UniProtKB/TrEMBL annotation:
Highest taxon in the source lineage: Eukaryota
Sample GO molecular function, one term: protein C-terminal S-isoprenylcysteine carboxyl O-methyltransferase activity
High-level lineage: Eukaryota, Sar, Stramenopiles, Ochrophyta, Bacillariophyta
UniProt name for this protein: Protein-S-isoprenylcysteine O-methyltransferase
GO cellular component: endoplasmic reticulum; membrane
Subcellular compartments: Membrane
Protein's organism: Corethron hystrix
PANTHER family per UniProt: PROTEIN-S ISOPRENYLCYSTEINE O-METHYLTRANSFERASE, PROTEIN-S-ISOPRENYLCYSTEINE O-METHYLTRANSFERASE
UniProtKB keywords: Membrane, Transmembrane, Transmembrane helix
Transmembrane segments: 67-89, 95-119, 140-163, 169-188
Topology in the lipid bilayer: Multi-pass membrane protein
Keyword Membrane found: yes
Record flagged with keyword Metal-binding: no
Length: 215
């Protein structure tokens, strides 16, 4: 896409197509955000390893390089934040629980799929099963959540200086919802087994069975 005098030359049709894909109202002055999101999404899709460096172990989602790197990063995030789950500082506790929940979710998406989804399926279980490159909207939602958390921290510091006793009920309920939701999702994936797929299927595979029991 070409640029002139700091303004985008994207046509209205191009903007409309992107709006439909992203599912948001789009204004020309925010085109730089689109470029930023696309850059992040390309990184999550390992374009830097394939196009720029030609690393064979990252050529597609099923290569071990992607699985090893993603699992290492997610495990590192999980390990770094777990010790702070019961810190004395509410802000650290909230942020740590968020990162632990997020890391656990993405790790379980891969491991539950790998255990209960046969490798004979097309495509085989690979790096995409972590769902870190889920979609542009998912990536945007993540950055909005992070920005909202830290903006409230610095803009309204008093909100985060309350004692544990004043928000322990909502904190406990939130944890229960996260843990319960993750348990139900993982159990449902395990119950569906080979009939589960992260990608919406438009044709019914011959081996697919309708699951009428369990979660």
């Amino acid at each position: 896409m070409s640029h002139s005098h700091g303004e985008s030359s994207a046509s209205p049709n191009q903007l409309k197509r992107y709006d439909n894909k992203l599912g948001v109202v789009h204004l020309p002055k925010f085109l730089f955000l689109r470029d930023a999101v696309d850059s992040v999404q390309d990184t999550l899709n390992f374009s830097w390893a394939v196009k720029d460096r030609g690393w064979e172990q990252f050529n597609d989602s099923t290569k071990p390089g992607r699985v090893a790197l993603l699992s290492s990063i997610l495990s590192l995030l999980l390990g770094l934040h777990t010790p702070f789950l019961f810190s004395a500082h509410p802000t650290i506790v909230q942020w740590s629980w968020y990162m632990v929940s997020l890391s656990t979710f993405h790790l379980l998406e891969f491991f539950v799929t790998a255990v209960f989804h046969p490798l004979r399926t097309d495509p085989p279980v690979g790096g995409n099963a972590f769902l870190v490159n889920h979609s542009r909207t998912y990536t945007i939602a993540f950055f909005i959540a992070v920005a909202e958390f830290w903006m409230r921290k610095f803009v309204s510091a008093a909100f985060y200086q309350v004692s544990f006793h004043s928000w322990r009920i909502s904190w406990f309920l939130g944890i229960c919802l996260v843990v319960g939701g993750q348990f139900v999702r993982s159990l449902a994936m395990a119950t569906a087994g080979s009939n589960f797929h992260h990608i919406v299927q438009v044709q019914r595979p011959d081996e697919h069975q309708l699951v009428t029991h369990g979660m």
